[in-house]
Amino acid sequence: MPDRETVHLAELHGDGISPELSASVHEVANALPIAVQFHPVDLTLEARRKSPTACYDTAVAAIRDRRIALKYPTVTERESPNKILRDRCRFSVIHRPVASLPGVKTRHDGKVDLHIIRIAVGGTYEDAGRRIGDDVAVSIRVIERRPSREAALYAFELARRLGCGVVSSSKHTIQRATDGLFEEIVLDVARAFPGVAHQVELFDALLYKLLLKPEAYRVIVTPNEYGDFLSDMACGMVGSIGLGASASYSFDEQGRVDLAMFDPAGGTAPDIAGKGVCNPSASLLAFAMLLTHAGCRGLGQMVDDAVRQTIAAGETTRDLGGTKSTKDFTAAVCRRLTPRS
Ligand code: ATP
Fold first, then answer.
1. 0.90 cut: is pTM over it?
2. Atom 20 of ligand 1 has which residue's CA nearest to it?
3. In a 3-state reduction of DSSP, which class is residue 241?
4. Is 286 in the pocket of ligand 1 (CB under 6 A)?
5. Residue 322 CB–ligand 1 contact under 6 Å
6. What is the structure's pLDDT at 4?
């Protein structure tokens, strides 16, 4: 954790538009009334090709040293850097906020303000399965107590902070062993939070109700694949899959966050890399989440507000129909960095 004046973080540089995203984050960081010390790690494809083991060792050591990391998009060639970091840092929970962005065109007119908390491991994603003869295939689905508990704890603590309830969602009436265990663990955690309402929704019903009445939902906790599906659907509702940020967490034996890594949704955008036109919003929102996690809640909120206000004012990059360069958009965000009264 940082001392009072300086936030230390590992900064994992990637490919494509990564240098431009980093420049934007640095500019915003420089405009804040605290010092932010970036500890860079080279995770570019070139560095990974040259020396993959050393590259990941350095990245993991930097994340462990600083306990907080900001990661930019990386190309997946042979290995997936995200999967390697997730395995080696034992990230078990993913937090994906998805909120309507005034100024961004959508086909859905509801107001979305969701926090999707998802178990980052297991579900149907650990086992590619196998064929049995020509006409049958099977795979194993995994739900584990520890990450389920960590996701539930994280969701309830977040809901307590936000003053809202938690909805847990799965198909526990069908997947009675696996999703049944997940819901049992969530219920057990819920008992420790008597002030936070808890509701169980079947996942198919949740999708339907969420589309009809998104305002009724705020914090949702789910097993791995459901959270994945839900995040993309929610992004579709707010009109962009590329504007969001996400956080990955690992936990200590007491269930407290140990390591935290923040990254923008979206890829390396090789088609526009180096042209100075990419949209740094998701990286800035990831940085805002990082500041909040580092104990600078007011500053995190300030950066988040500034990004949203800039987009709402129509001062956007080309992908959102505007004419701003990455630099000009960043400058417009910096001009709006004023504390909430
Ligand atoms: P990757 O293999 O890293 O996923 P990709 O090109 O397949 O790269 P994205 O990086 O997600 O996938 O890009 C999809 C499209 O969205 C591209 O046209 C890209 O220019 C655009 N895009 C992605 N990120 C941004 C951004 N931050 N700002 C502007 N446009 C973006």
1. yes
2. 269
3. coil
4. no
5. no
6. 54
pLDDT tens-digit series, residues 250-277:
999 988 999 999 999 889 999 999 999 9
Cβ atoms 124, 96 nearer than 8 A: no
Q: What phi, psi does 93 have (nearest 5°)?
A: -135, 135
Smallest CA-to-CA distance from 112 within 102, 124, 99 is with 99
Distance from the alpha carbon of residue 109 to the mean position of ligand 1, in angstroms: 25
pLDDT at 9: 98
3-state secondary structure of 123: strand
What value does the mean pLDDT take over residues 140-162?
Answer: 97
**H or E stretch covering 12:** strand 6-13
Q: Dihedral angle at the C-alpha atoms of 122, 171, 232, 308, nearest 10 degrees?
A: -100
Task: Return d(Cα 18, Cα 44) in angstroms, integer.
Answer: 9
Report how far ligand 1's centroid is from the alpha carbon of 12 (Å).
Answer: 18
In the CATH hierarchy, which fold is given to the domain comprising 106-238?
Isopropylmalate Dehydrogenase (3.40.718)
Residue 300 CB neighbour total at 10 angstroms: 19
**What residue ranges do the domains of the chain occupy?**
106-238
What's residue 255's pLDDT?
87
Residue 25 C-beta-side C-alpha neighbours within 13 Å? 31
Alpha-carbon dihedral of residues 301, 306, 311, 316, nearest 10 degrees?
Answer: -130
The H-or-E segment that residue 227 falls in is: helix 224-238
Evaluate: CB of 278 within 6 angstroms of ligand 1: yes
Q: Is the pLDDT of residue 1 over 70?
A: no
Is the distance from the beta carbon of residue 73 to the nearest atom of ligand 1 less than 6 Å? Answer: yes
- CA-proximal residue: ligand 1, atom 14 (nearest): 269
